[in-house]
Write a structure and sequence with these properties.
By secondary structure, this protein is α+β, with helices and mostly antiparallel strands. It contains 18 helices and 16 strands.
Length: 484
């Protein structure tokens, strides 16, 4: 037995797979299958994969199969006679072909090993598969580094040529190159938007993605070859280790993070602390002429909203957070009457706004402008980023960043309106187009924990044996008991 096959048999036996298994298990019904397809990053590239492999499948009685990273069949193409034979063993949309479900096979073994695999006839652990042969190649997403799917060609043992493994490997590499092109385009948009405001931080900032890939490391203090390298997955305020061994703290910038190396007091060459200057004044002084500081707002799901002004933590009071959110939502500015309407409704007046603006300026300095009231700096806000992702249809990104409602303790009319709109749009997108992972992420937010419809959908889309099913069932029962 070839080593890859013997290793697969060992994994399959350890998983408790019986050689007498009759067919792959069905895990997705029609609705759950549609959700899984719509949420999968390969959906956009399905025409390319079908165009590459369909002719082989149609002319040679082969089947083309595309799965997700767990081995669930999402798409399949092939002539009717081959599809009928395949249905008898569960080789169809919605069935699971991981090693722990049916043992050694071209799909599950490729996913387990992380490389293209060919499994011929009796090399299958399950006896029912001995008249079949299959060649599969995993597809790895370049951003996360995770295996997200498998492309497979299957046929009866006498029909499949071993060279088919080269064909599926080429198809997988082509899909990965398409995904990489998309990733590079997103990276470039992030760099274009953020780097102009970070040029003054040449000795203190490394821009990374939410998955920990380095997008930009200014020349001078960092080697140029840092771009594309990985650090740990960043979380707000969490310390990470840079490639040179220094420790840095993650500061959220919407879709990205800025890693600021921690400076040890008294270290030779360290910048002395500023005296007698406001945070905004110090920030502005460290940027080239014509550029301003960067204000980042983290207002989603926070009982105590927080912000960073050029990396310096700011803890605004609720009323001041409402003002910052309103001005961020109106980048062209608001009159005194307009801001009062946002904060107090019809009962507000400019006179009630002025003292709050004065206090906010004492905290943030000159970035709060007047006539009209506006923010005179670059702004990255988590709620604005979620809104942009919703407009682009990026369900995974929007749900990941939506950690909760916008300023949940606020009663300001403009904030309530934006909070309600964001909540409805995120929930609807997660239900309509989110797969299991996106729905699970949404279910961890404050509104998602008590959402019975979300839990019911999770019960439908999570495959049997998924450890998250127990938590979903427990939470669902508590909600139903409460309603009773």
């Amino acid at each position: 037995m070839r080593p890859p096959i013997s290793e697969s048999w060992r994994r399959s036996r350890d998983a408790g797979v019986d050689a007498a298994v009759a067919a792959a298990p069905l895990v997705f019904d029609r609705d759950a299958l549609a959700d899984a397809r719509g949420a999968h990053p390969l959906e956009r590239h399905l025409p390319m994969l079908e165009g590459l492999l369909r002719r082989v499948a149609d002319e040679t009685e082969h089947l083309m199969v595309i799965t997700d990273g767990a081995g669930h069949v999402l798409w399949m193409q092939g002539p009717p006679a081959a599809r009928r034979d395949a249905e008898a063993i569960g080789l169809a949309e919605g069935f699971r072909w991981s090693e722990d479900a049916v043992g050694t096979n071209g799909i599950g073994t490729a996913l387990a090993s992380g490389r293209p695999e060919y499994v011929y006839a009796s090399e299958h652990l399950a006896q029912v598969l001995h008249r079949w042969s299959c060649a599969g190649a995993p597809i790895t997403h370049p951003d996360s580094g995770r295996v997200i799917g498998c492309v497979d060609v299957s046929a009866t043992a006498r029909a499949l040529h071993p060279a088919t493994v080269a064909l599926v490997a080429a198809a997988a590499r082509l899909a990965e190159s398409r995904l990489e092109n998309e990733m590079r385009q997103r990276d470039e948009r992030l760099r274009e938007r953020l780097l102009p405001y970070l040029r003054g931080l040449r000795d203190a900032g490394v821009l990374v993605t939410a998955t920990g890939r380095i997008l930009a490391a200014p020349a001078g203090p960092y080697p140029e070859n840092w771009r594309g390298r990985r650090v740990g997955v960043p979380e707000p305020g969490r310390a990470l280790t840079l490639p040179d061994g220094r420790t840095a703290v993650a500061e959220p910038l919407g879709e990205a993070f800025l890693l600021r190396p921690q400076v040890t007091r008294g270290r030779p060459g360290a910048r002395p602390p500023s005296r007698g200057r406001s945070p905004a004044g110090d920030a502005a002084a460290r940027f080239p002429a014509g550029e301003g500081p960067l204000l980042t707002l983290s207002f989603l799901g926070e009982d105590r909203p927080y912000a960073h002004l050029d990396g310096r933590p700011v803890q605004p009071a609720l009323r001041h957070a409402e003002i910052l959110a309103a001005l961020a939502l109106h980048p062209r500015g608001l009159t005194g009457d307009g801001l009062a309407l946002c904060l107090y409704g019809e009962d507000g007046s400019p006179a009630s706004v002025r003292p709050e603006i004065h206090r906010l300026r004492q905290q943030l300095g000159g970035i709060v402008r007047a006539r009209p009231y506006r923010l005179g700096c670059a702004v990255e806000a988590d709620f604005l980023t979620v809104r942009r992702m919703l407009d682009e249809g990026d369900v995974t990104g929007a749900v990941r960043l939506y950690t909760g409602e916008l300023l949940p303790r606020s009663d300001a009319p403009a904030i309530r309106a934006e909070r309600d709109e964001l909540a409805v749009r995120v929930r609807r997108l997660a239900l309509d187009r989110g797969g299991a992972d996106a729905l699970w992420t949404y279910a961890q937010t404050e509104p998602g924990r008590a959402d019975l419809e979300v839990l019911e959908r999770l019960r439908a889309v999570l495959p049997p044996g998924d450890p998250r099913l127990a938590a979903v069932a427990s939470r669902r029962e508590r909600l139903l008991d409460g309603e009773a």
